């Protein structure tokens, strides 16, 4: 029996194992995940992360990414994609492996990651981090209200129910704050609830924080590392993107993702190239 | 003619290429880099980083790490070590590769990194990050004043001229602040000046930030990513370690390294296991 996959995200990260080739999977990058001229980096990381979840979690034990690092090598385009995985080390609580995402023999993304079981991640929490203070979703700026030219360059925005804090969207009307901070509420438009793999997408889902520095344009990711800190509960996610240092043509973009229970479920940092002056 | 290597750090990361095996290097982990039973993770990252610098920089162009991620697989011990490198992709401004550090066939560390030329990292700086405010080095707490039992477990501290801000060393006298922040001045004891490879050591050189949370003990690194943001000038470095979230047995440790010109030269984050209650 084949179960129809109803969520766009689950279709986006669907993989088929190549017969006789353990750890080698085929997938498809759908044009609906495009941003700028390529496929969204978070979706690529979730796809590679799914392959490693299948590989490490084959016996059910280490199926959750705990730390995952992706190095982006060339822009991915809509069409077939294959993912080769390699097991590096299997430990008691963590398994480490690599994944390589390619199209027509051209490598797009190389991943190195450690997997475990986020169900173990219970127990003591000592945190000075606090979730962002946001107006309720209905008083935030829906991406559906974004300028048309922005949507047309970012098909994937139609797959997100993204509600940005009005205090951090001045850039959409030509008034960037210069603070280097964009924050808001996130859900998938089709209602698919969050899980660890979806958090890999969410870490790279908001507009680049350089928009808020008055630098519109594409900001290609060099490297993105996501740490998964807890399994998210269903509901809205709160996401904060921030940057403190843009220099020499690069900037860092930190993301924090909080779930509806108020728990910090993911932290990420990426190094990206600053947009070229327009 | 053989040039004597006078700096302990340069000896620590020295490599010899195996005849007939391009990209495969031999080194030696000296007992002087031990901390809590293993070899310091920053020194290991600098050693693997040196191998990739030799590999990528063979033609002189991409010798500087720009982003480097290390996944720690097993505790390294004093003795011989070999490093295998693999080129993943050579681009115009960045080259990406992997390194695998092993002892007796047992892998200690897997690295994925992109290299470039930090001399290109000039130009516009837009930063809201500010260097830490520290008392002058002579009014900070020298590691030479640390409790004897701490030094005996951390041979490498004798190689550092580390002056910690008195405001962040309450833990040394049983009064941790609970803020999750340790900061201070850093130099190598033998006066070897900073460069990009040395910054990989510095990112993991201070005591674990969990000391300041009242959790003494060893905090093994799972993953450490360092972004090199500028080439450091000679002189003192200022280093800040901080953490905001300890949960489920893991914590993140962020490091910022500033050079004497007041420039942010490196940012890093690691995911580490929380020390076991003692």
From TrEMBL, chains A, B:
Acyl-CoA thioesterase-like N-terminal HotDog domain location: 30-115
Signal sequence interval, chain numbering: none
InterPro entries: ACOT8-like_C, Acyl-CoA_hotdog, HotDog_dom_sf, Sec_Metab_Biosynth-Assoc, TesB_ACOT8-like_N
Positions of the Acyl-CoA thioesterase-like C-terminal domain: 137-272
PANTHER family documented for this protein: CHROMOSOME 23, WHOLE GENOME SHOTGUN SEQUENCE (PTHR38110), THIOESTERASE DOMAIN-CONTAINING PROTEIN (PTHR38110:SF1)
Protein name: Thioesterase family protein
């Amino acid at each position: 029996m084949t179960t129809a996959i109803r969520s766009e995200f689950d279709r986006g990260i669907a993989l088929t194992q190549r017969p006789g080739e353990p750890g080698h999977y085929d997938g498809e990058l759908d044009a609906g995940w495009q941003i700028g001229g390529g496929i969204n980096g978070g979706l690529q990381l979730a796809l590679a992360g799914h392959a490693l979840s299948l590989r490490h979690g084959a016996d059910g034990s280490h199926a959750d990414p705990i730390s995952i690092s992706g190095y982006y090598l060339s822009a991915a385009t809509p069409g077939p994609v294959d993912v080769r995985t390699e097991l590096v080390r299997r430990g008691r609580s963590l398994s480490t492996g690599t994944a390589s995402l390619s199209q027509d023999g051209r490598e797009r993304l190389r991943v190195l990651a450690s997997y475990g079981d986020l169900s173990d991640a219970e127990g003591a929490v000592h945190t000075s981090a606090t979730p962002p203070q946001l107006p309720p979703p209905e008083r935030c700026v829906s991406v559906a209200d974004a300028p048309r030219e922005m949507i047309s360059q970012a098909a994937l925005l139609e797959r997100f129910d993204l509600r940005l804090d009005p205090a951090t969207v001045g850039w959409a009307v030509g008034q960037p704050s210069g603070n280097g901070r964009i924050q808001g509420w996130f859900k998938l438009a089709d209602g698919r609830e969050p899980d660890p793999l979806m958090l890999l997408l969410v870490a790279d889902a908001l507009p680049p924080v350089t928009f808020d520095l008055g630098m519109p344009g594409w900001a290609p990711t060099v490297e993105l590392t996501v740490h998964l800190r807890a399994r998210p509960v269903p509901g809205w996610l709160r996401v904060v993107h921030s940057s403190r240092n843009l220099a020499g043509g690069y900037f860092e973009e930190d993301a924090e993702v909080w779930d509806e229970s108020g728990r910090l479920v993911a932290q990420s940092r990426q190094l990206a190239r600053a947009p070229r002056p327009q």
